[in-house]
Amino acid sequence: MPELPEVETVRRGLVPAIEGRRIEAVVLNRPDLRFPFPERFAERLTGRRVERLDRRAKYLLIRLDDGTSLLSHLGMSGRYSIEAEAGIRQPGDFVHAEPANPRHDHVVLSVEGGVTVRYNDPRRFGFMTLYATQEEAAQPFLAGLGPEPNSNAFSAAYLDEALAGRRTPIKSALLDQRIVAGLGNIYVCEALYRAGISPRRQAASIPGKRAARLAPEVRSVIDEAIASGGSTLKDFAAADGALGYFQHRFRTYGREGEACLTPGCNSRIQRIVQSARSTFFCPTCQR
Ligand code: ZN
Question: Is 16 a catalytic residue?
Answer without folding.
Answer: no
